Amino acid sequence: MSDRQPDTTPPASDPAPGPASAPRGAAFLLAQIGAHAAGRFAERVGDLGLTPADVGLLRMIAGRPGRSQRALAEDLGVVPSRVVTLIDSLEGKGLVERRRSAEDRRNHELHLTAEGRRTLGAVSRKAAAHEDDLLAALDPAQRAQLLDLLERVATQQELTPGVHPGYRTLQKSPRSGRPE
Amino acid sequence: MSDRQPDTTPPASDPAPGPASAPRGAAFLLAQIGAHAAGRFAERVGDLGLTPADVGLLRMIAGRPGRSQRALAEDLGVVPSRVVTLIDSLEGKGLVERRRSAEDRRNHELHLTAEGRRTLGAVSRKAAAHEDDLLAALDPAQRAQLLDLLERVATQQELTPGVHPGYRTLQKSPRSGRPE
DNA sequence: TATTGTTATACTCTATAACTATA
DNA sequence: TATAGTTATAGAGTATAACAATA
Protein backbone atom coordinates (compact mmCIF):
# COMPACT_ATOMS: atom_id res chain seq x y z
CA MET A 1 0.00 0.00 0.00
CA SER A 2 2.50 2.59 -1.04
CA ASP A 3 2.30 5.09 -3.85
CA ARG A 4 4.32 3.60 -6.59
CA GLN A 5 1.70 3.46 -9.21
CA PRO A 6 2.84 3.60 -12.82
CA ASP A 7 1.43 5.96 -15.38
CA THR A 8 -1.40 3.58 -16.14
CA THR A 9 -3.17 4.69 -13.00
CA PRO A 10 -3.90 8.39 -13.17
CA PRO A 11 -3.50 10.18 -9.86
CA ALA A 12 -7.04 11.23 -10.47
CA SER A 13 -9.55 10.58 -7.82
CA ASP A 14 -8.60 10.68 -4.19
CA PRO A 15 -8.53 14.03 -2.48
CA ALA A 16 -8.75 13.79 1.25
CA PRO A 17 -8.09 10.22 2.25
CA GLY A 18 -8.44 10.38 5.94
CA PRO A 19 -11.01 12.15 7.99
CA ALA A 20 -14.56 12.78 6.91
CA SER A 21 -14.89 9.07 6.50
CA ALA A 22 -14.87 7.69 10.02
CA PRO A 23 -18.12 8.57 11.72
CA ARG A 24 -17.58 9.73 15.25
CA GLY A 25 -21.00 10.81 16.36
CA ALA A 26 -23.17 9.53 19.15
CA ALA A 27 -25.78 8.38 16.64
CA PHE A 28 -23.32 6.06 14.97
CA LEU A 29 -22.08 4.76 18.28
CA LEU A 30 -25.62 4.10 19.39
CA ALA A 31 -26.28 2.05 16.28
CA GLN A 32 -22.97 0.25 16.53
CA ILE A 33 -23.22 -0.56 20.21
CA GLY A 34 -26.89 -1.40 19.84
CA ALA A 35 -26.19 -3.96 17.13
CA HIS A 36 -23.34 -5.34 19.15
CA ALA A 37 -25.52 -5.62 22.24
CA ALA A 38 -28.29 -7.30 20.27
CA GLY A 39 -25.85 -9.80 18.84
CA ARG A 40 -24.38 -10.68 22.18
CA PHE A 41 -27.79 -11.01 23.71
CA ALA A 42 -28.81 -13.30 20.87
CA GLU A 43 -25.84 -15.51 21.66
CA ARG A 44 -26.74 -15.72 25.29
CA VAL A 45 -30.38 -16.59 24.86
CA GLY A 46 -29.31 -18.92 22.08
CA ASP A 47 -27.90 -21.06 24.85
CA LEU A 48 -31.48 -21.46 26.02
CA GLY A 49 -32.65 -22.37 22.52
CA LEU A 50 -34.32 -19.01 22.01
CA THR A 51 -34.04 -16.15 19.58
CA PRO A 52 -34.41 -12.53 20.70
CA ALA A 53 -37.81 -12.49 19.05
CA ASP A 54 -38.82 -15.51 21.12
CA VAL A 55 -37.82 -13.65 24.24
CA GLY A 56 -39.86 -10.64 23.22
CA LEU A 57 -42.90 -12.80 22.70
CA LEU A 58 -42.48 -14.56 26.02
CA ARG A 59 -42.21 -11.24 27.79
CA MET A 60 -45.29 -9.81 26.16
CA ILE A 61 -47.33 -12.90 26.90
CA ALA A 62 -46.13 -12.90 30.49
CA GLY A 63 -47.02 -9.24 30.81
CA ARG A 64 -50.53 -9.73 29.51
CA PRO A 65 -51.60 -13.36 29.46
CA GLY A 66 -54.59 -14.37 27.41
CA ARG A 67 -54.14 -11.93 24.62
CA SER A 68 -54.78 -13.02 21.06
CA GLN A 69 -52.23 -13.57 18.34
CA ARG A 70 -53.70 -10.73 16.38
CA ALA A 71 -53.27 -8.29 19.25
CA LEU A 72 -49.74 -9.49 19.66
CA ALA A 73 -48.98 -8.98 16.00
CA GLU A 74 -50.30 -5.47 16.19
CA ASP A 75 -48.26 -4.52 19.23
CA LEU A 76 -45.12 -5.97 17.76
CA GLY A 77 -45.65 -4.38 14.40
CA VAL A 78 -45.41 -7.66 12.55
CA VAL A 79 -47.79 -9.49 10.29
CA PRO A 80 -50.10 -12.09 11.91
CA SER A 81 -48.66 -14.96 9.94
CA ARG A 82 -45.32 -14.35 11.51
CA VAL A 83 -46.81 -14.68 14.96
CA VAL A 84 -48.09 -18.09 13.94
CA THR A 85 -44.57 -19.23 13.18
CA LEU A 86 -43.13 -17.78 16.35
CA ILE A 87 -45.82 -19.25 18.57
CA ASP A 88 -45.53 -22.58 16.79
CA SER A 89 -41.91 -22.68 17.81
CA LEU A 90 -42.56 -21.66 21.40
CA GLU A 91 -45.42 -24.08 21.72
CA GLY A 92 -43.24 -26.82 20.28
CA LYS A 93 -40.74 -26.13 23.03
CA GLY A 94 -43.47 -26.33 25.60
CA LEU A 95 -43.12 -22.73 26.71
CA VAL A 96 -46.41 -21.31 25.47
CA GLU A 97 -49.90 -22.65 25.27
CA ARG A 98 -52.73 -21.78 22.89
CA ARG A 99 -56.20 -21.94 24.36
CA ARG A 100 -59.34 -21.53 22.34
CA SER A 101 -61.30 -18.61 23.65
CA ALA A 102 -64.69 -19.64 24.98
CA GLU A 103 -66.17 -16.30 24.09
CA ASP A 104 -65.06 -16.19 20.53
CA ARG A 105 -63.75 -19.46 19.32
CA ARG A 106 -61.79 -17.88 16.53
CA ASN A 107 -59.36 -16.49 19.06
CA HIS A 108 -56.41 -18.17 20.63
CA GLU A 109 -55.59 -16.97 24.10
CA LEU A 110 -51.88 -17.19 24.74
CA HIS A 111 -50.43 -18.28 28.07
CA LEU A 112 -47.05 -19.28 29.38
CA THR A 113 -46.61 -22.79 30.67
CA ALA A 114 -44.82 -23.47 33.91
CA GLU A 115 -41.70 -24.19 31.95
CA GLY A 116 -42.21 -21.00 30.03
CA ARG A 117 -42.07 -19.09 33.29
CA ARG A 118 -38.98 -20.92 34.39
CA THR A 119 -37.35 -20.18 31.07
CA LEU A 120 -38.24 -16.53 31.38
CA GLY A 121 -36.51 -16.52 34.73
CA ALA A 122 -33.40 -17.94 33.11
CA VAL A 123 -33.64 -15.26 30.46
CA SER A 124 -33.69 -12.60 33.15
CA ARG A 125 -30.47 -13.95 34.60
CA LYS A 126 -28.91 -14.01 31.14
CA ALA A 127 -30.02 -10.44 30.61
CA ALA A 128 -28.49 -9.31 33.88
CA ALA A 129 -25.16 -10.93 33.05
CA HIS A 130 -25.34 -9.44 29.59
CA GLU A 131 -25.90 -5.95 30.90
CA ASP A 132 -23.08 -6.31 33.35
CA ASP A 133 -20.66 -7.40 30.65
CA LEU A 134 -21.79 -4.77 28.20
CA LEU A 135 -21.32 -1.95 30.67
CA ALA A 136 -18.13 -3.25 32.23
CA ALA A 137 -16.44 0.03 31.36
CA LEU A 138 -18.76 2.06 33.54
CA ASP A 139 -19.07 2.39 37.28
CA PRO A 140 -22.50 2.43 38.92
CA ALA A 141 -22.84 6.19 38.79
CA GLN A 142 -21.97 6.26 35.12
CA ARG A 143 -24.41 3.47 34.41
CA ALA A 144 -27.17 5.40 36.07
CA GLN A 145 -26.22 8.43 34.08
CA LEU A 146 -26.27 6.47 30.84
CA LEU A 147 -29.63 4.97 31.68
CA ASP A 148 -31.05 8.39 32.35
CA LEU A 149 -29.81 9.79 29.06
CA LEU A 150 -31.04 6.80 27.10
CA GLU A 151 -34.46 7.02 28.67
CA ARG A 152 -34.74 10.64 27.67
CA VAL A 153 -33.87 9.78 24.11
CA ALA A 154 -36.23 6.80 23.99
CA THR A 155 -39.10 8.85 25.34
CA GLN A 156 -38.59 11.73 22.98
CA GLN A 157 -38.29 9.33 20.06
CA GLU A 158 -41.54 7.70 21.16
CA LEU A 159 -40.12 4.21 21.40
CA THR A 160 -42.56 1.73 22.87
CA PRO A 161 -41.19 0.38 26.14
CA GLY A 162 -40.17 -3.22 25.80
CA VAL A 163 -40.70 -3.46 22.07
CA HIS A 164 -37.59 -4.05 20.09
CA PRO A 165 -37.62 -2.69 16.55
CA GLY A 166 -35.75 -5.80 15.58
CA TYR A 167 -38.97 -7.74 15.89
CA ARG A 168 -40.34 -6.17 12.80
CA THR A 169 -38.76 -6.08 9.42
CA LEU A 170 -36.18 -3.38 9.08
CA GLN A 171 -37.52 -0.74 6.82
CA LYS A 172 -35.24 -1.18 3.92
CA SER A 173 -34.61 2.08 2.19
CA PRO A 174 -38.06 2.37 0.64
CA ARG A 175 -36.49 2.21 -2.77
CA SER A 176 -34.00 4.41 -4.29
CA GLY A 177 -35.44 7.67 -5.06
CA ARG A 178 -39.02 7.71 -5.88
CA PRO A 179 -41.76 8.99 -3.66
CA GLU A 180 -44.71 6.94 -2.66
CA MET B 1 -60.40 -8.69 28.46
CA SER B 2 -62.41 -9.68 31.51
CA ASP B 3 -62.36 -12.79 33.60
CA ARG B 4 -65.46 -14.68 32.79
CA GLN B 5 -63.96 -17.85 31.64
CA PRO B 6 -66.01 -20.99 32.02
CA ASP B 7 -64.79 -24.17 33.56
CA THR B 8 -63.30 -25.27 30.28
CA THR B 9 -60.33 -23.00 30.89
CA PRO B 10 -58.55 -23.86 34.09
CA PRO B 11 -57.18 -20.89 36.00
CA ALA B 12 -53.92 -22.71 35.67
CA SER B 13 -51.00 -20.86 34.34
CA ASP B 14 -50.47 -17.18 34.98
CA PRO B 15 -48.84 -16.18 38.21
CA ALA B 16 -47.37 -12.73 38.10
CA PRO B 17 -48.76 -10.95 35.08
CA GLY B 18 -47.06 -7.68 35.29
CA PRO B 19 -43.48 -6.89 36.07
CA ALA B 20 -40.50 -9.06 35.26
CA SER B 21 -41.60 -8.85 31.66
CA ALA B 22 -40.75 -5.32 30.63
CA PRO B 23 -37.00 -4.95 30.32
CA ARG B 24 -35.79 -1.71 31.75
CA GLY B 25 -32.05 -1.95 31.57
CA ALA B 26 -29.56 0.14 29.71
CA ALA B 27 -28.56 -2.82 27.56
CA PHE B 28 -32.07 -3.17 26.23
CA LEU B 29 -32.37 0.54 25.64
CA LEU B 30 -29.10 0.54 23.78
CA ALA B 31 -30.31 -2.23 21.49
CA GLN B 32 -33.69 -0.62 21.04
CA ILE B 33 -32.40 2.87 20.36
CA GLY B 34 -29.62 1.49 18.22
CA ALA B 35 -32.03 -0.37 15.98
CA HIS B 36 -34.23 2.68 15.82
CA ALA B 37 -31.29 4.89 14.91
CA ALA B 38 -30.14 2.45 12.25
CA GLY B 39 -33.60 2.35 10.74
CA ARG B 40 -33.95 6.10 10.61
CA PHE B 41 -30.51 6.47 9.13
CA ALA B 42 -31.41 3.88 6.51
CA GLU B 43 -34.42 5.96 5.57
CA ARG B 44 -32.37 9.08 5.19
CA VAL B 45 -29.61 7.64 3.06
CA GLY B 46 -32.31 5.80 1.15
CA ASP B 47 -33.21 9.23 -0.23
CA LEU B 48 -29.79 9.19 -1.84
CA GLY B 49 -30.35 5.72 -3.24
CA LEU B 50 -28.00 4.12 -0.76
CA THR B 51 -28.21 1.46 1.89
CA PRO B 52 -26.32 1.77 5.17
CA ALA B 53 -23.94 -0.90 3.92
CA ASP B 54 -23.26 1.22 0.84
CA VAL B 55 -22.40 4.13 3.08
CA GLY B 56 -20.03 2.02 5.10
CA LEU B 57 -18.25 0.89 1.98
CA LEU B 58 -17.97 4.42 0.64
CA ARG B 59 -16.50 5.58 3.91
CA MET B 60 -13.94 2.82 4.06
CA ILE B 61 -12.88 3.37 0.49
CA ALA B 62 -12.60 7.09 1.08
CA GLY B 63 -10.54 6.48 4.16
CA ARG B 64 -8.09 4.22 2.42
CA PRO B 65 -8.35 4.45 -1.36
CA GLY B 66 -6.83 1.74 -3.47
CA ARG B 67 -7.45 -1.14 -1.16
CA SER B 68 -8.50 -4.47 -2.59
CA GLN B 69 -11.89 -6.08 -2.29
CA ARG B 70 -10.41 -8.86 -0.28
CA ALA B 71 -8.96 -6.47 2.28
CA LEU B 72 -12.29 -4.74 2.45
CA ALA B 73 -14.11 -7.98 3.04
CA GLU B 74 -11.76 -8.84 5.84
CA ASP B 75 -12.13 -5.52 7.60
CA LEU B 76 -15.88 -5.62 7.31
CA GLY B 77 -16.14 -9.17 8.45
CA VAL B 78 -18.09 -10.25 5.40
CA VAL B 79 -17.47 -12.81 2.73
CA PRO B 80 -15.67 -11.61 -0.43
CA SER B 81 -18.55 -12.48 -2.69
CA ARG B 82 -20.70 -10.04 -0.86
CA VAL B 83 -18.24 -7.26 -1.54
CA VAL B 84 -18.60 -8.06 -5.22
CA THR B 85 -22.33 -7.42 -5.05
CA LEU B 86 -21.96 -4.25 -3.04
CA ILE B 87 -19.27 -2.82 -5.27
CA ASP B 88 -21.24 -3.80 -8.36
CA SER B 89 -24.06 -1.66 -7.10
CA LEU B 90 -21.86 1.29 -6.22
CA GLU B 91 -20.01 1.07 -9.50
CA GLY B 92 -23.32 0.91 -11.35
CA LYS B 93 -24.29 4.17 -9.66
CA GLY B 94 -21.01 5.73 -10.70
CA LEU B 95 -19.76 6.25 -7.17
CA VAL B 96 -16.89 3.78 -7.10
CA GLU B 97 -14.32 2.69 -9.61
CA ARG B 98 -12.44 -0.60 -9.92
CA ARG B 99 -8.91 -0.34 -11.24
CA ARG B 100 -6.76 -3.30 -12.08
CA SER B 101 -3.65 -3.20 -9.97
CA ALA B 102 -0.52 -2.89 -12.07
CA GLU B 103 1.49 -4.76 -9.50
CA ASP B 104 -0.76 -7.74 -9.14
CA ARG B 105 -3.35 -7.89 -11.80
CA ARG B 106 -5.57 -10.12 -9.78
CA ASN B 107 -6.35 -7.20 -7.52
CA HIS B 108 -8.91 -4.50 -7.99
CA GLU B 109 -7.97 -1.22 -6.38
CA LEU B 110 -11.06 0.61 -5.24
CA HIS B 111 -11.46 4.35 -5.58
CA LEU B 112 -14.25 6.85 -5.24
CA THR B 113 -15.29 8.79 -8.30
CA ALA B 114 -15.87 12.52 -8.14
CA GLU B 115 -19.55 11.83 -7.79
CA GLY B 116 -18.79 9.34 -5.09
CA ARG B 117 -17.11 12.07 -3.11
CA ARG B 118 -20.00 14.43 -3.66
CA THR B 119 -22.40 11.74 -2.52
CA LEU B 120 -20.34 11.12 0.58
CA GLY B 121 -20.62 14.80 1.35
CA ALA B 122 -24.38 14.56 1.06
CA VAL B 123 -24.28 11.56 3.36
CA SER B 124 -22.42 13.58 5.96
CA ARG B 125 -25.12 16.20 5.91
CA LYS B 126 -27.76 13.52 6.28
CA ALA B 127 -25.85 12.04 9.17
CA ALA B 128 -25.63 15.39 10.92
CA ALA B 129 -29.36 15.97 10.58
CA HIS B 130 -29.98 12.44 11.74
CA GLU B 131 -27.90 12.88 14.85
CA ASP B 132 -29.59 16.12 15.64
CA ASP B 133 -33.03 14.59 15.41
CA LEU B 134 -32.10 11.50 17.33
CA LEU B 135 -30.69 13.46 20.23
CA ALA B 136 -33.32 16.16 20.25
CA ALA B 137 -34.07 15.35 23.88
CA LEU B 138 -30.58 16.27 25.02
CA ASP B 139 -28.85 19.59 25.41
CA PRO B 140 -25.25 20.00 24.26
CA ALA B 141 -23.77 19.12 27.62
CA GLN B 142 -25.84 15.98 27.84
CA ARG B 143 -24.89 15.01 24.32
CA ALA B 144 -21.23 15.32 25.19
CA GLN B 145 -21.81 13.24 28.26
CA LEU B 146 -23.58 10.56 26.27
CA LEU B 147 -20.83 10.50 23.68
CA ASP B 148 -18.24 10.08 26.38
CA LEU B 149 -20.06 7.19 28.00
CA LEU B 150 -20.67 5.48 24.67
CA GLU B 151 -17.04 5.80 23.70
CA ARG B 152 -15.99 4.15 26.91
CA VAL B 153 -18.33 1.27 26.26
CA ALA B 154 -17.27 0.91 22.64
CA THR B 155 -13.62 0.89 23.55
CA GLN B 156 -13.99 -1.64 26.32
CA GLN B 157 -16.10 -3.84 24.06
CA GLU B 158 -13.39 -3.59 21.40
CA LEU B 159 -15.67 -2.32 18.69
CA THR B 160 -13.81 -1.31 15.57
CA PRO B 161 -14.25 2.41 14.95
CA GLY B 162 -16.42 3.01 11.96
CA VAL B 163 -17.39 -0.58 11.39
CA HIS B 164 -21.01 -1.32 11.87
CA PRO B 165 -21.85 -4.84 12.99
CA GLY B 166 -24.85 -4.63 10.73
CA TYR B 167 -22.55 -5.05 7.77
CA ARG B 168 -21.97 -8.63 8.58
CA THR B 169 -24.52 -11.29 9.12
CA LEU B 170 -25.87 -11.32 12.61
CA GLN B 171 -24.57 -14.30 14.36
CA LYS B 172 -27.71 -16.25 14.69
CA SER B 173 -27.77 -18.28 17.82
CA PRO B 174 -25.40 -21.02 16.71
CA ARG B 175 -27.85 -23.72 17.51
CA SER B 176 -31.43 -23.50 18.59
CA GLY B 177 -31.38 -25.95 21.36
CA ARG B 178 -31.26 -29.25 19.67
CA PRO B 179 -28.82 -30.49 17.09
CA GLU B 180 -30.52 -31.04 13.81
C1' DT C 1 -0.42 -24.81 -6.30
C1' DA C 2 -2.23 -20.55 -4.11
C1' DT C 3 -4.86 -16.35 -4.43
C1' DT C 4 -8.26 -12.55 -6.25
C1' DG C 5 -12.36 -11.82 -7.90
C1' DT C 6 -16.67 -13.67 -10.05
C1' DT C 7 -20.61 -16.56 -10.85
C1' DA C 8 -23.96 -20.14 -9.59
C1' DT C 9 -26.52 -22.47 -6.25
C1' DA C 10 -28.91 -23.22 -2.09
C1' DC C 11 -30.81 -21.74 2.10
C1' DT C 12 -33.17 -18.75 5.33
C1' DC C 13 -36.32 -15.46 6.44
C1' DT C 14 -40.43 -12.97 5.94
C1' DA C 15 -44.32 -10.79 3.65
C1' DT C 16 -48.46 -11.54 0.57
C1' DA C 17 -52.24 -13.79 -0.40
C1' DA C 18 -55.27 -17.71 -0.56
C1' DC C 19 -57.88 -20.62 2.52
C1' DT C 20 -60.67 -22.49 6.95
C1' DA C 21 -63.42 -21.89 10.71
C1' DT C 22 -65.97 -19.24 13.26
C1' DA C 23 -68.96 -15.16 13.88
C1' DT D 1 -69.88 -10.46 4.87
C1' DA D 2 -66.12 -9.89 8.22
C1' DT D 3 -62.50 -11.60 11.32
C1' DA D 4 -58.74 -14.93 13.69
C1' DG D 5 -55.73 -17.97 12.52
C1' DT D 6 -53.28 -20.99 9.23
C1' DT D 7 -51.02 -22.54 5.09
C1' DA D 8 -48.81 -21.86 0.55
C1' DT D 9 -46.17 -19.23 -2.40
C1' DA D 10 -42.83 -16.02 -3.78
C1' DG D 11 -39.28 -12.68 -3.13
C1' DA D 12 -35.16 -10.62 -0.99
C1' DG D 13 -30.81 -11.30 0.97
C1' DT D 14 -26.73 -13.80 1.88
C1' DA D 15 -23.48 -17.60 2.52
C1' DT D 16 -21.16 -21.69 0.22
C1' DA D 17 -18.87 -23.46 -3.22
C1' DA D 18 -17.46 -24.00 -7.96
C1' DC D 19 -14.94 -21.36 -11.41
C1' DA D 20 -11.60 -18.25 -14.20
C1' DA D 21 -7.63 -15.46 -14.32
C1' DT D 22 -3.29 -14.42 -12.53
C1' DA D 23 0.65 -15.27 -9.72
From TrEMBL, chains A, B:
Ranges of compositional bias, category Pro residues: 8-20
Gene3D superfamilies: Winged helix-like DNA-binding domain superfamily/Winged helix DNA-binding domain
Sequence ranges assigned to domain HTH marR-type in this UniProt record: 23-155
Domain of life: Bacteria
Protein name, entry field: MarR family transcriptional regulator
Region (Disordered): 1-24, 158-180
One Pfam family it belongs to: MarR_2
TM region(s), chain numbering: none
